[in-house]
Amino acid sequence: MKTKIAKENTVEGVSKATSIIPARTGAAFLRTLWLEGRGNRLKIMSTDSKIEFSGEYRAENLEEGLLGVQGRSFYDLFRKLPTGEITLSQDKDRDILLLQQGRRKYKLPTYDPSWFQTFSPFPEENAVEWTASHLRELIEHIGFCIADDDSDTMFYMKMVPVPEEGYIEVCGLNGHQFGMQRFIHPGLQYLLNEDGVLIPKPYLLELKKWLTQDEILLNIDQKRIFVTNKLRSETLSFPISFDKFPNYNIFLSYFEAETSRLVLDREELIDSLERIYLFNTETQRCCYFVFSDRELILYSQGQDTGEGTESIEVDYQGDIEQIIFPTKNLIEILTHFKSPYIQLEFTDQNGPCKITGEKDSDYLVIIMPVKVEEETYYTEEEIESENL
After folding, report:
1. SS3 of 16, please?
2. For the segment 63-117, what is each residue's pLDDT rounded down to a tens digit?
3. Per the structure, how many domains does the chain have?
4. What's the CATH number where 322 sits?
5. How far apart are CA 133 and CA 131, in angstroms?
6. Stated pTM of the model
7. Residues sharing a CB contact under 8 Å with residue 241, sequence separation 6 or more, in sequence order
8. Residue 318 half-sphere exposure, CB side, CA atoms within 13 Å?
9. Residue 76 located in a structural domain
10. Domain range for residue 52?
């Protein structure tokens, strides 16, 4: 292979391909960046054995061919080169890739092309268009609710159709938080079977990094999900998981009965919580909510930090007097809403709380409050009896 490329037109593709490569692995073929010169394009490919990335970029191919290089070493060198033309040529006798730019010359070892395994092509039939910004927003709204442990059944984002209502539900769960977004997309609904699909969290994060295009095409077959840009120049694919996802309708059923409700200014609450958070400690990371009809009192205290108390004007209807939330988690949840005013719906002091907003009508988050056990102290009578 011998090809000429412009660094500025190719570096983003090299970066995307390298991000797929595992940071640590004993298998050399998984650390490999595959470069293929054909026609007037250079194709860059990588895989971690599950996620597959391929991108095609303009090139002048003087000699067509395929070779593999150590991906991270190649990228570290490539990104440090200045803008301009780069020549890549292979010395097959010595298994060397010569990278040259002006008076700069570098030699990198290559891998046996027989290691290369053909990547899954993007299936064109039934592919649907989607807006990248919408998909990115879905991942942001749900991703923080997904568990990080790959041995957990809550390690996934679930996407499932609701045909009778014409919606698709996307949700994530991590044991103490649940997020759900509903949206309408007839084409995508057609691709999904009645059980929907499960997408592991690492795949979502990689997909989010890749979503730089305005419009994308998406397709699903029996084993994989495929995403490509409208020019078909870059494709990302990953396997579907067939694990079981918890029945999240159990959480939603708690709110069918009568509940306590709190309506207040979202930005004002965020500002107050960020100040109250300064009084949290490693062992006390919570904020206390104390209710009255028109006022919400927030406070937190720590032995080393002192005490912070604020009050906010609210509209409250219910009989719960106090509830406790993890401060940082609640702040993060509120940042994903757009509505000026939000509603918190409580089942009881230790039960789940649903957060919704008028301008976020298809989005909700459920958070579990913190259950704090009351400390037990000796009474005067007990002390006296012990001394007898």
Report:
1. helix
2. 999 999 999 999 999 999 999 999 999 987 778 999 999 999 999 999 888 888 8
3. 3
4. 3.10.150.10
5. 5
6. 0.86
7. 156, 197, 198, 199, 200
8. 25
9. yes
10. 2-115
